[in-house]
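note to self: dont lose this again. the chain is below, predicted strucutre after it. 159 aa total, dont forget to put it in the shared folder this time
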Amino acid sequence: MTTNETTGGPVPAPEQRLQMFKLAPDYYQAMIAVDRASRQGLDPRLAHLVKVHASMINGCAFCIDMHSTDADKLGEQDHRLLSLPAWRETPWFTARERAALALTESITLVTQGHVPDAVYAEAAARFDETELAQLIALIATINVWNRLSISTRMSPAAK
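---
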């Protein structure tokens, strides 16, 4: 946590620009419904790994905090969450998780080579078609949430 140089305490969060849930309530409720639908049929722990990973790539502090907290409640191990930026260099992600993380990167960073055939093929080998469709929906949805949170300056609560 960054500290305030004068007091040694935490630096206050940036001021939130606007509150989507108040100003665009129909859209916000629709996003909540899309989010719920995007998770159907997926292992909740895998879903949170994907959400944390995309949020780390996008630099969304609010979503990193929310989804790592939720993953922790489901029993996810801290060392796995902390090593998501270097998942390729670790031995503790399953082949299925690795395929999901690679797909997450490709979709999140779509302008950097789109989704390569090899990445898609690996995910398709590890997930049935319905799961793969849900995984793609989940990745797309967390990317929308990241953009909403970042653009409106949503910030995690101080801990």
